[in-house]
């Protein structure tokens, strides 16, 4: 039932992203004159708060060196829950260019939304230290703060993950004898709204290169005749195979629409050609004389010298269009009088 192995490290990336939010917090101490005495980077580590509290309590003698220094931060992931409010279609897929090879397309199902619960603990023996840390955190959550995580590297899927601050609680173990070490603890509860992706499939062959649209005489397709079909395919704007079909037999300027070529046997009406950086479409052919439309596909009309190569832009070039290239469209119109429709699955009218 479950597909082959895949691992996007999404939970791990979210845990690292969450912890990184709080790894640059400082506290500062001043003397009675207001001069700064110390500047301390607050350490942060992943782990349950019970572990840190146990280490504090292992050495209660205030006259001896403590086994753990305060203040410090600890955090851990507390749970995972499905978020139905962000649910999408379970069968919908999308395609993305492979970052390592832009000639390939990867297919993946839409992500599944889950919430990750985190808990951040501020542990301090001085109230002012804890408040300094707290005030460096709270202004950024209103009530959420978004971080960008590269969830799936194979498709370059980067998403903003909002992290919500849910609640804040405070405890103080001030009770006890003088030998017991005091600590203050603020506990901040967070929710990170992330997404889980399934396996990524190499789906280059599924790249859509043809679209067919049927128009019917009524919105009642079952009882309406099909009137017309439009078929659209990509058309190359550049010459990919360097066919060098023929060459100019004369110089032409940017106003000429009729000129001679050395051999027009492979050219015909409506064919697209490329001379230099200018695209043209042949209006008519008379022997070796062409009449053309200039500056097709928004290309720049310019002068060309005798002997310049003329390349044909045809289906051979269309098949070589790359993913990031600009391209135009070939269109074909067919007229019908039947009740059929095109089936993409069968590849025929039914």
Question: Can you describe what's shown?
Answer:
With 350 residues, the protein is mainly beta. The chain folds into 2 domains: 10-202, STM4215-like; 206-349, no CATH class. The protein contains 4 helices and 22 strands. It has helices at 10-20, 49-57, 127-135, 315-318, and strands at residues 26-30, 36-41, 44-46, 72-82, 93-98, 101-109, 112-124, 144-152, 157-172, 184-196, 201-202, 211-216, 226-236, 246-247, 258-260, 272-275, 278-286, 289-296, 309-313, 327-338, 342-343, 348-349. The strands form 6 sheets. It has a 6-stranded mixed sheet with strand order 3-4-7-10-9-8. Strands 14-19-16-17-18-15 form a 6-stranded antiparallel sheet. A hairpin with a 2-residue loop joins strand 16 and strand 17. The longest helix has 11 residues, at 10-20.
Quick take:
With 350 residues, the chain is mainly beta.
**Low-confidence parts lasting 5 or more residues at pLDDT below 50?**
none
CATH topology grouping of the largest domain: STM4215-like
| Average of per-residue pLDDT values | 84
Helix content: under 10%
Strand content: 35-45%
- Rg (C-alpha, Å): 34 Å
CATH architecture of the largest domain: 2-Layer Sandwich
* Count of separate structural domains: 2
Q: Name the CATH class of the largest domain.
A: Alpha Beta
Summarize the biggest pleated sheet. 6 strands, mixed
The termini sit apart by 33 Å
Spatial order of the strands forming the largest sheet? 3-4-7-10-9-8
């Amino acid at each position: 039932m479950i597909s082959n192995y895949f691992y996007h490290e999404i939970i791990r990336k979210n845990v690292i992203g969450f912890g990184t939010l709080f790894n640059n917090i400082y506290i500062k101490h001043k003397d009675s004159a207001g001069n700064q005495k110390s500047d301390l980077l607050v350490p942060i580590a992943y782990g349950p708060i019970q572990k840190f509290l146990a280490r504090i309590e292992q050495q209660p003698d205030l006259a001896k060196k403590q086994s753990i220094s305060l203040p410090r931060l600890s955090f851990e992931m507390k749970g995972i829950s499905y978020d139905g409010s962000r649910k999408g279609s379970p069968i919908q897929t999308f395609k993305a260019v492979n970052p390592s090879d832009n000639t390939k397309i990867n297919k993946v199902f839409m992500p599944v939304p889950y919430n990750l619960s985190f808990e951040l603990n501020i542990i301090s023996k001085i109230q002012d230290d804890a408040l300094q840390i707290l005030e460096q955190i709270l202004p950024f959550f209103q009530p959420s703060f978004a971080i960008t995580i590269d969830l799936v590297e194979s498709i370059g899927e980067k998403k903003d993950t909002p992290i919500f601050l849910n609640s804040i609680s405070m405890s103080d173990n001030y009770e006890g004898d003088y030998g017991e070490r005091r600590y203050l603890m603020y506990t901040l509860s967070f929710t990170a709204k992330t997404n889980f992706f399934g396996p990524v499939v190499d789906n280059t062959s599924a790249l859509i290169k043809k679209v067919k649209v049927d128009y019917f005489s009524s919105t009642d397709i079952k009882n309406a005749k099909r009137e017309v079909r439009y078929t659209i395919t990509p058309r190359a704007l550049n010459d990919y195979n360097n066919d060098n079909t023929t060459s100019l037999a004369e110089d032409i300027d940017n106003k000429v629409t009729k000129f001679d070529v050395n051999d027009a046997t492979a050219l015909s009406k409506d064919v697209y050609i490329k001379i230099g950086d200018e695209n043209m479409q042949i209006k008519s052919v008379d022997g070796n004389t062409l009449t053309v439309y200039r500056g097709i596909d928004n290309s720049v009309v310019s002068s060309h010298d005798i002997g310049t190569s003329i390349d044909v832009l045809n289906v051979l070039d269309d098949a070589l269009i790359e993913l990031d290239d600009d391209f135009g469209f070939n269109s074909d119109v067919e007229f019908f009088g039947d009740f059929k429709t095109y089936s993409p699955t069968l590849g025929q009218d039914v």
